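=== Structure Prediction Worksheet ===
Name of assembly: unnamed complex
Input type: mixed (protein and possibly other molecules)
Chain count: two
Listed entries:
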Amino acid sequence: MSDASLEDIAAFLLDEAKRHGASQADVVVAEGDSLSVGVRLGEIEKVQRSKARHLGLRAFADKRSAITSTADFSRDSLARLAEESVALARVTASDEYSGLPDPAELATEIPDLDLYDPEMVDLDAERVTELCLAAEAAARNADARITNSEGGEFGGGTSRVVYAASNGFRAGYRTSSCSLSAVPVATDNGSMERDYWYSAKRKLADLDSPESIGARAAERALRRLGARKVSTAEVPVVFDPDMAASLVGHVASAVSGSALYRGVSFLRDKLGSTIAPQIVTIVDEGNRAGALGSKPFDGEGLPTRRTSVVDRGTLSSYLFDTYSARKLDSRSTGNASRSVADAPGVSPTNLYLAAGDTSPEDIIGSVESGLYVTELMGFGVNSVTGDYSRGASGIWIENGELAYPVSEITIAGNLLAMLAGIEAVGSDLEMRRSICSPTLKIGKMTVGGV
Amino acid sequence: MPNPTDGSLEPRNFFLDRFALDDGALEDTIGTAIARKADFADIYFEFRSSESFSLEEGIVKRANKNISQGAGVRVVAEDKFGCAHTDEVSTDTLRIATETARAIADSGGSEAAVAVRPARPKHDLYSLANHPLDVALQEKIDLLHKIDIAARRHDPRITNVMAGLGIEQKIILVVTSSGLVVGDVQPLVRLSISCIAEDKGVRQQGTSGGGGRVEYSYVTEGDRYMKWLRTAADQALRNLDAVDAPAGNMTVVLGPGWPGVLLHEAVGHGLEGDFNRKQTSAFSGRIGERVASELCTVVDDGTIANRRGSLNCDDEGNPTKRNVLIENGILCGYLQDRMNARLMGVEPTGNGRRESFAHAPMPRMTNTFMLAGDSEPEDIIKSVPKGLYAANFGGGQVDITSGKFVFSATEAYLIENGKVTRPVKGATLIGNGPESLTEISMVGNDLALDEGVGTCGKDGQSVPVGVGLPTIKIDNLTVGGTQA
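=== Predicted Assembly ===
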């Protein structure tokens, strides 16, 4: 059935699953094209094009379920897939909470969220090569101390997803995305540092200019040169927006219904309680037009929506898919994400910490002696307890001014204490990724150094 | 169609049959690929069949089976390459992919006919009599149940167990512009176990697991899975009583096995040929220099039978090797794929790897470890008046250019007056690649390789790897706890 439409393939699989005795079933069919171009030192370095399609069938045998997925779209392969899926479901355990969502919860309208750019179809490699060359050149020309480069890179593609289920849902949508980055290397007095900057958007024309990406990347690499280590101390820590976003990411994992019913969340049993000061509001917004984390319906066909996760310091909602909601006697928040090869799970869509009213300059200005974090490394976050210990680098703040770069240090604390210790929220929120935050200041953390 | 798990499966016949191709089609494709001013080209065919099962809350909730397949064509001209990938493989799609990939090379080369000659990989490290995909489903499901029951019996404070079994079979075929046609059949088994312990309102998690390019029986032989589940459960239980970790510079002793992730981060990535050709690694241009104490000899060895990081040939068809990276503290070699080796004027080292047909090859590690030294592990601990003993780690990360690396302990203890005492909460260790290994003052005689669960990520591509380490003492490393 290699030439059939994605919708026809999905319908065929649902019929086959039923024929083999499935009580319920759903199908995801995804196809995409992508192009990646890299340049280095002013010359093209690589061009990669990819075409891919894949489908996954989830079959239920009463309260048992399994998933089979394949890239082989031949009729034989698909018929075998349906039979295998039902057979595999029969060896799993019966789970009273499993099953498709109630038809009453399904999306009835599929909103056009402006997630697709026709310009991205069959994109011309030469055109995006020019963008890469301009971004890299802007970085290399920024300063004599930019002596080397890992290049400029463009990545982009389009995809189409169709989701169909035996509860009657059947819809599809197209998306596109693209990104442009530059990675310069700066050297001075035997110190060598690399940094990057990027812009990622749904539409090609919305990308930041290559010149601004390159200049920002160079500035970031240059400001790391000559980094020192600092003494171990307890000090205020200011997170730049991208690093602050990683904290919002840890909150995302902890408010996921899956983590909660498994008991692996430091925010378990905290719903309705104050976890942060009033200046902290965190929102998940799956139906935001044009945003990188948006989709017109979730991985189970439910409408995506706006959910206030933290409302002026109070933990106001967890995020659920159908299964975790049933387990915890709640309702799905439209946060099911479904990959082709695996059962739905809970994911944030566009999750952001709302902007405050303090400028980032004033936040830095409020610190007598402390750390401005611009990079975090490693995986030292315990999701069960919230214990936090990560490698860091950044700029030391002295008397309210960014004074000198620091590296090879750690920052440690506990996420509960860190959320409660947020003293300032910046006004500089920019929706540049699917999880984002403005600048944040945490009153006190342990910085580990010499 | 041949059974993809048949032990006698011959990759060339498998793909020619599956995609209705013949040697002529391979020769035409690779001939077209190399026809412009290119240095070399290759076609990579891949068929991957996998299954996974997972248990939580005492029941096996998830069972998945997946099949992916496709081909990638790559054309390399000096330091440029073009790649095109397709998951629909036919003479037509291969021609389109090849024309896309070769656009990177200047026109005007001379059409050279390539005659293909099938070869076998140099090694035979993981031929299996019984493929783990062929073991009855019920047996695998039963194993997960046994793990759940045994972990809960191990201690009543274990309140939840998550166990996952993943099995795959990957068949590859590499066709190069020099005419080499070499294939491999790569099995992989991975069991992961995670236990939650709860006592007096405190909760902690412990994880463990193992596997390799092995038969399914490997997991159950000698009750290996029981050892792993005890490791996971005990780690969770011990962490219930853990005190806050110290912060600052101190002496750190790393235990044997998985803590070898230190080498992977501190030196392994920095020695990959791509970064060194581009002069962006902290180790660039330092061959022949001292980068570790003379007690340290570090190798990357892709030829160890049945290991997770081993390969009969790399994804460019080159035989894997045992490559010495650091000998008695002196840097002696980089890890190379074909393109970077060619540009640096050295031989490939068998480290050209790709996550799948849809990714381009890069220099990657296989199994990276330090050779054993002379010290008794007990003597190493006894020599430390005050410090940290790290027995197990989660993942790590490195900044290749500055050399800064981190890795996070999941099981660690204080060392007080030469004795391992209280367990401490997970702490991140941070150091500088070219410097930290010079601080190694004792190397134990107890080299152990990890249990076979490691996955390495680079530039968005994940590949299975191994690490290993004897007990070592590092005189000076920054520990990132909360106790200033």
